[in-house]
Amino acid sequence: MPENEKLIEELNDLILINKDRIEKYKKILKDSNASEDIFLLKKMIDQSIHFNKELISEIKNKNHNQNWESVTKPGKIYKMWEDLILSIPDNKGWDILEKVENSFQKIYQKALSPEVYVPSDTIHLLIIQKAKLKELYQVLKSKQPLKLMLA
Predict the structure, then answer these.
(1) Multiple choice CATH, 3-63+74-142, 2.60.40.1120, 3.10.180.10, 1.20.1260.10, 1.10.3520.10
(2) Digit-coded pLDDT (tens) for 62-97
(3) CA geometry: angle at 14 spanning 24 and 100, to 5°?
(4) Domain locations in the chain as residue ranges
(5) Over 70: is that where the pLDDT of 138 sits?
(6) What distance in Å separates the CA atoms of residue 62 and residue 56, rounded to the nearest whole number?
(7) Could you give the CA distance from residue 98 to residue 96 in angstroms, rounded to a whole number?
(8) What pLDDT does residue 94 have?
(9) Phi and psi at residue 28, in whole multiples of 5°?
């Protein structure tokens, strides 16, 4: 597989993972009663929506405006994400949030690994996204334990 295709696959994986994060947090948000938790969850959802827009734009740029419709099949990074998520016990509340966000940090670190050539502009984007993720992760950790009232 050419390097550009490998990079596109990894960026696609990050899009899939962000979509998973959005869905997970929408479900938690639906079941949450604490207003401070709702604010943080909405911020995390908005963050992933914004990240996906940036990643899609990056893919379109790397494809030189070739027809790019959506994510195709999951790659190595997405499979790593699935393994990390499946290893998290089916806890409710703060535990699951912290573990998902910690897994998210690991996934972004993996995307920045030298396994695939990543151009400097894409590295810059991923480093910024990872830093923003870490900021929210630190906010989440400082609120321990969140009082999510989940059904």
Answers:
(1) 1.20.1260.10
(2) 775 444 455 456 677 777 777 766 666 655 556 677
(3) 35
(4) 3-63+74-142
(5) yes
(6) 10
(7) 6
(8) 62
(9) -65, -40
